[in-house]
Amino acid sequence: MLIMTPIDQDPSARLAALLHRCTALWRVQLDERLRPWGMTQTSWRTLWLLRTASERYNQCTLAERLGIETPTLARVVERMERLGLLCRTSDQRDRRQKHVEITERGRQLAAEIEVEVLAVRARMLAGLDAAELGAGIALCEKILGNTSPGPNTEERQGAEIRNGRQAAPISKGKSAD
Fold this sequence. Notes:
The two termini are 37 Å apart. Strand 2 (86-90) and strand 3 (98-102) form a beta hairpin. Strands 1-3-2 form a three-stranded antiparallel beta sheet. It has two domains: 11-126, Winged helix-like DNA-binding domain superfamily/Winged helix DNA-binding domain (Arc Repressor Mutant, subunit A, Orthogonal Bundle); 129-168, no CATH class. 61% of the residues lie in helices and 7% in strands. By secondary structure, the protein is mainly alpha-helical.
């Protein structure tokens, strides 16, 4: 006999649980592959972002871009700075402001471990064709668009959910639906 749990009966809850599980597994697999270099997903993403950036980042904007708290990034940057992968430099106009920059050693390490990152990506996305990848990208972009701040967005959605109603989708710009 198949027992249905509430999460199985609600497609939005199932999708949320699956997105969370995929993200967690991706991180665990990446952390395992990067462990021989003393790296984690967060340290890799920091190197990658700084290596590919066309702008300079201070710790606050870098943390925001990585989706982590500034104190968490501060610990990551301190560790990576001790390893010679990053350095902090003062802003010429505001000495209180520190920019985080990748060093040559950091660039070399990022290039060296990128093969591991690509291997994890290939494993996680194995079996998906171009159409499925496109649909996944569109889905994630739409979900991310729903996080854009709007007037009372969170309060309205929270109240609708508490009252047992499906929250109206919040879209940014034109939508396909």
